[in-house]
Design a protein that fits this description.
The protein is built from 12 helices and 5 strands. By secondary structure, it is mainly alpha-helical. The protein has 2 domains: 70 residues, no CATH class; 189 residues, Up-down Bundle (Fumarate Reductase Cytochrome B subunit), CATH 1.20.950. The protein binds protoporphyrin IX containing FE. Keywords: Cell membrane, Electron transport, Heme, Iron, Membrane, Metal-binding, Signal, Transmembrane, Transmembrane helix, Transport.
Length: 344
């Protein structure tokens, strides 16, 4: 009798254990033995029980039936793959650009104006062109930093900042990312309209490229119009990369909404996310090089976007054919620098 009662209590204990460690039943065949409405289960338990292709779904009365999807472990394994690829390429892009430019600076130094400052200025970009540039570039920097936080924040910033501050930072970073994207798209569109005509590839560009744009040898200045071949590469990379980032960004911002015939299926969103991350990394690489050459890398270059005008000797060295055009057509664009006597 005692033996029977012992066995009974052991049986009940096993049943209780099974009941408490049981996993709630999703809509799939695999976990039908448990019921999520009868007991609470942790997210981790669900993840461990469900296979990649399985999901926990609810019911929705709105037209978008995809909104019923609640938990899908496949998305988590996808996130691992995505993070791995995007993280690796972003690290390679940023470190590659920074190390490459540091080496370039050590070997070549700052590219100086060979003919020294002339004391004459030539108008290069109007206020509206500079506004477009700074709108596009300022917003790009915000997007890049908030995007980088999404990819690396948990690894780099979380341990240093702690959970509370990191979650506040990431929340506002995500909100900024969603809204600042609009400013970027506007800046990108304006820059395209203002500069596309000057960025059509020409025969001249091949010669410029063959001579490495004179970047690697002092005193070498291949002729160029308003934008040289290097700048045309920056321009088209920004336009193509910016357009892809904008499109995939919108598809991710409005899941399920069709844009240019894309975006209806949940299965495709992973692809847009991957493209968004990889293109962002590639464009960041190019833009780091651009920022370097437009600031510390080349004497006199920043003025073009800072003040709008540049020194005439700088312009003659880097954009000789453009200076010829301006001199032939609009001589009033060339003026003495404030407070300086023009050099002989
Ligand atoms: C934040 C630091 C930046 C600085 C200091 C900077 C500086 C400059 C300068 C000086 C120019 C005019 C070059 C010339 O006179 O020929 C320029 C042009 C341009 N910038 Fe930026 N820029 C910055 C960021 C960006 C960003 C983030 C983007 C794109 C998202 C961008 C895209 C462009 C494009 C497309 C042009 C015209 C083509 C070219 O000159 O390469 N810039 N920038």
């Amino acid at each position: 009798m005692k033996n029977l009662s012992q066995r009974l209590s052991a049986f009940i204990a096993v049943l209780t254990l099974l009941a408490f460690s049981g996993i709630a039943a999703p809509t799939t065949a695999q976990a039908q033995q448990v019921n999520p409405t009868e007991q609470s289960v942790t997210e981790e338990q669900l993840f461990n029980t469900l296979k990649d292709e399985e999901a926990v779904s609810g019911r929705v009365s709105i037209p978008d039936k995809q909104a019923a999807g609640l938990i899908k472990p496949g998305n988590k394994s996808w996130a691992g793959t995505h993070n791995g690829l995007v993280r690796t390429l972003t690290i390679v892009a940023i470190l590659g650009a920074v190390i490459g430019l540091a080496l370039f600076y050590m070997i070549r130094g700052r590219i100086r104006i060979d003919g020294k400052f002339s004391g004459m200025r030539i108008l290069r970009f109007s206020a509206i062109e500079r506004f477009a540039h700074w709108l596009m570039s300022g917003s790009f920097v915000v997007l890049a930093l908030t995007g980088l936080n999404l990819v690396f924040g948990r690894i780099i910033i979380l341990p240093w900042l702690g959970e509370g501050a990191f979650s506040t930072l990431t929340h506002w970073g995500k909100v900024s990312h969603n809204y600042v994207g609009w400013a970027f798209m506007l800046g990108l569109a304006l820059a395209f309209v203002f500069w596309v005509a000057h960025n059509i590839p020409e025969k001249l560009d091949v010669e410029w490229l063959k001579q490495g744009g004179g970047l690697f040898k002092k005193g070498v200045h291949p002729p160029a119009k308003k934008f040289n071949a290097g700048q045309k590469i920056i321009f088209w990379s920004t336009m193509a990369g910016g357009a892809i980032l904008s499109l995939t960004g919108l598809l991710l911002l409005f899941p399920g909404v069709q844009i240019l015939g894309l975006g209806a299926e949940q299965a495709d969103w992973h692809f847009y996310q991957l493209v968004h991350g990889l293109v962002a990394a590639g464009l960041t690489f190019i833009i780091i090089a651009h920022i370097y050459i437009g600031s510390i890398g080349m004497e006199g270059a920043f003025d073009a976007m800072g003040k709008g005008d540049v020194d005439l000797n700088w312009a003659k060295e880097h954009h000789s054919l453009w200076v010829d055009e301006v001199q032939a057509n609009q001589i009033e664009k060339i003026t003495p620098a404030k407070g300086t006597q023009p050099a002989e």
